[in-house]
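Need GntR family transcriptional regulator's 3D structure for a figure. Predict it.
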Amino acid sequence: MTSSNPLPIPDAQPKRRAADVAYDAIESMLSTLEIAPGSPVVEADIAARTKLGRTPVREALLRMVTSGLIVQQPRRGLLVSNIDLAEHLDVIQTRRALEGLIAACSARRATALQRKDIVRCAERMLETAERGDLDDYMRADHALDVVNHQASHNRSAVQCVVPLIVQCRRFWYAYQHEGDVREGARAHMHLAQGIATGNEAHAVAGANQLMDYLELFARRIINQ
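Structure prediction for GntR family transcriptional regulator:
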């Protein structure tokens, strides 16, 4: 089906390093549980699946070890980190602080095109949530993050929040049957409208609404 509301193409960027391309490809596999928590990570296998060289794949994997998405164990090599239910609430708490900062920066610094694009992404999330199309919803979610992160011009905050976003996406894919994406889509629209209008308080409130939604979802899973 062709959408009447296509996802935006991010602002033109310099040619990306192969290691960054590899990181994004591996991140997608981890987020969607294509590579399940606890699974071994074989460099040669990842290189073959991503059609990238082993050097950029190795660099990307080392970055993920540093951020905790992948763990290195003696005699067992690299493993995808497990989803820790108790620690997940700390992930959300930390992400809350960063998301609020990024939202405020984007509301203040976004270009006119970025403001329009982020609303288009949120609209796409609402559409796909109503259809119950989780994969398309997650693609729109990722596209919104890309525009939001670019618009914030806060590289330090973005570098810190990206691994936390991956953790939250892994959690969602693992327990998606318990969630309601429509509520998440509405929170993203609140965030997008705040950024689009340049209202920092509105944008931060949207970010907090999204984190409230993720926290309630996580607590519901933990308390089962």
